[in-house]
Structures are given as structure tokens and as C-alpha cells.
């Protein structure tokens, strides 16, 4: 693979990978991958889920040992026994999957294993001082003493970023760093990346948000099935070129013409009236979703979208109002919601969407196992799992392997698939394609359309405007926990959404 020119031509090559290979059992995760990254340069690594991106980054970060190949940093060959050696060498990884300890404070997470000391004892004052510096740098306003557990995912993502940057690394690997960030938070991160580049730091950037790569990358390296397949120079980087390189074909364009309208839909399957979320003083939420309709809940981060769907599903306490599925009133618990045909695919698949230490097959058939009760039908479960894996094109060597070994996007597919074996009437999806590549997104959108076509009412929380325009028949805008307004597909624009999203209650 040839190295293209850096924006900082005076910088020496910082990181060089030569012939990296890695096999997990019968799966060849990486095969003869080589690349170089210069100081002050941002190189994007893209590919579909399962292409080998995360494995390659774990090799660089010392988490996984390569079976073959060499690594050089500033001309010196690297060998290490774990992540600590990589950090000491100057390589920092910002994980896609949050890797924080919820029972510890922000400060303790930020400097875990690197705590400042004085006379052999923890220097708590210095720990706080350094934590505040790095939190300010990533734009996060939270106390260093705050426990991490209750913080929203976006805050945890910024803590992950701050922790990596606090090592003063020469190479920073960013694996889906904006997957949980708002537009404003993402812009602050981009500004930070530019400052790091000006300081001579090399950036390896992984993202399924291709518009970010167009904005940031000096060069794009494309992986497919564990192999390097193409390099895109700066003037070759555009959305369509990256899609073709990743999936080996052009994806069908989705437009308003591909979507239904609300005309002709039957009666509402989900009816929410006067719902109070969080407290009895909260503004009432009213919404309806008809059979065959896809409704998107949109709004700024912190507007209360997730809280609304979790309250509807029974995960959170309801402080007032009514919820009906096909005219059946729900009292407000998860089991009752499932029995009525309502399901929720949560945003955080690792913590609440999957049994991360169980097999792919067990996760895919989890709902049907619960419904069967004491007596499991193994043959039927395997057949069901095989059908769901095929239907959502989950990349896995076997349904028997642990789901934690799959890429994030394939884990998300399984979290989605487990509900499809049941009799679903209302399907709620919270950020359904977070951390999912563009090819997998297209497949998930097709499944959503298919389910809506079967008469299922679909309610989707999404922060991606492209996604909203691709799937929504109607948009409900949430601002400060209330419904700020609705927009039919025929009138849907980003400007209309933002005007409602920033509106104040009268």
C-alpha cells in the first residue's frame, strides 16, 4: 500500500503496519494488512461490520496479538504484552464499546492505573486538577467526583475520549467516537482533532458516518473481509466512492418515493395519551402510531426521546397518562407490554440489549425461549436462530459462538433480530443503527420497511437525519420532554425539524 502525502509534509512516518494477519479459530479476521500514518495526518479506516477494522485497532492497541506481521512506531519495531505497553509507546485507543467502570468516579476512570501520587500516596487534589483540564478540553461539564454509572451515554463517550487523550499519545485511534454525541459535541471533537493534528499527532479514524470522513480524512483505507482492498486519496474521497469500495457495489438510493404515506393506514395500534415521564409535573406526551407506519422521534440530545419510549415500554415508572396497544390498556410493566405485542430494542446493546456472554443463537432466540417457559426445544431454537441470522445477514462463523466476539454492527443485528420471532404489533427502536455500517443500515431499513408492510407500528428514536429521511413516514419532534410538533413526510426538512427542536414551551 502506498503512502499518500500528508498535510504536514515535514512530519516523519509515525506508524507503519506491515503484513498484519490474525485468525480466530476458523475465521481469518485480518490477512496481510499494511498501512502507514504520518504525524499530523488523519487517516480513515472504513469497511462493513466484520471487515476487520476493530480487530486491526485492537492489534495496534495491544489488546490482540497478531499472528504475523510487524508494527513500527517512529522507526522502532514494537512488541508488547498488553495495552499498557501500547499506551507507554504512545498509542491510545478510544473504544467504540464503552469501557468504563460504572462504580467509579469520572476522575478514577480517567486516570485508572495512572493516578498521580505524592510521597507514595494518591494525590487527590492533583487528580481532580488534571481531570478538570481534560474534561474541559473535550467540552464535558461534569464533576470529577460524579459516579460514571448514572451519566448518559454521550457523557460516557466524552470521558472515553478524554481518557485516551490524557495519555499524550503520538497516535490516537478513534473507533466510532461520535456514535453517541450530539451535533454540537461532534463539532467540538472535530476542532479537537484539528488541534491534535497541528501538534503532530497521527489520527486513525473509524466511522460509519461518511460525511465525517469527507470532512476530516487526508486518506481513506478500505478493508473488506479482513483484507485491504483500496486506498482513496484526498481528492477521491466522496460518499459514493466509499460505499462502492466498502460493499463492492452501489447501494440502491432511498428517497421519499420509496416510502409510504399515512394515507390508507388503518387505525392506530399504539395510542399514548397524557403520558407523564419522570414526574407528575412533566409535560403530557400524546402520540399515535398506525399499523404499517414508521414514526421517528427526533430532537436534540437530552430532549427526552429515550425516556419516552422506555416509559411506554414499562422500563421507567409512569407518572400519569394512558398507553394502549390495539385498544388494550397497559398498566406499565415490561412483561405486560411484551404480552401485548410491544417490544423495544434499546440504544445500549451491550448493557441492556444482549446477554453479552451468551451465544449468538441463544441471544437470537431469547424472546422465544422466555415464552416457552421451562421446556426448551433445542432443534426448533437452532432453526429459528439460523433463519434470523440469514434474514438479517449476521456475519458469524456459527450461532454457537459467544456474541461478544461479533463486531458491534452484527451484535446490533442480533439485538434487533431476537424480537422478530414473536408476534410483534408495536416495534420501538432506540438508535437502531448506532455503530452499524452503511451496508448493514440499508439491510436494517429494508427489514423495518418489511415489518411495517406487515402492519406493525414502528416507533424509532434516531439522531441521524439521513436515517430519519430514509425510513420515516412521519416525524414527531421532542423538545424538553414535550411534543413540540409533528411533520408529515411531504413537509419534512431539516430546517423544519430544527425549528421545532429548539422551540420553547408556551
TrEMBL record:
<dbReference type="InterPro" id="IPR003439">
    <property type="entry name" value="ABC_transporter-like_ATP-bd"/>
</dbReference>
<keyword id="KW-0762">Sugar transport</keyword>
<keyword id="KW-0677">Repeat</keyword>
<dbReference type="InterPro" id="IPR003593">
    <property type="entry name" value="AAA+_ATPase"/>
</dbReference>
<keyword id="KW-0472">Membrane</keyword>
<dbReference type="GO" id="GO:0005524">
    <property type="term" value="F:ATP binding"/>
</dbReference>
<dbReference type="Pfam" id="PF00005">
    <property type="entry name" value="ABC_tran"/>
</dbReference>
<feature type="domain" description="ABC transporter">
    <location>
        <begin position="246"/>
        <end position="505"/>
    </location>
</feature>
<feature type="domain" description="ABC transporter">
    <location>
        <begin position="15"/>
        <end position="250"/>
    </location>
</feature>
<dbReference type="InterPro" id="IPR027417">
    <property type="entry name" value="P-loop_NTPase"/>
</dbReference>
<keyword id="KW-0067">ATP-binding</keyword>
<keyword id="KW-0547">Nucleotide-binding</keyword>
<keyword id="KW-1278">Translocase</keyword>
<keyword id="KW-0813">Transport</keyword>
<dbReference type="InterPro" id="IPR017871">
    <property type="entry name" value="ABC_transporter-like_CS"/>
</dbReference>
<protein>
    <submittedName>
        <fullName>Sugar ABC transporter ATP-binding protein</fullName>
    </submittedName>
</protein>
<keyword id="KW-1003">Cell membrane</keyword>
<dbReference type="InterPro" id="IPR050107">
    <property type="entry name" value="ABC_carbohydrate_import_ATPase"/>
</dbReference>
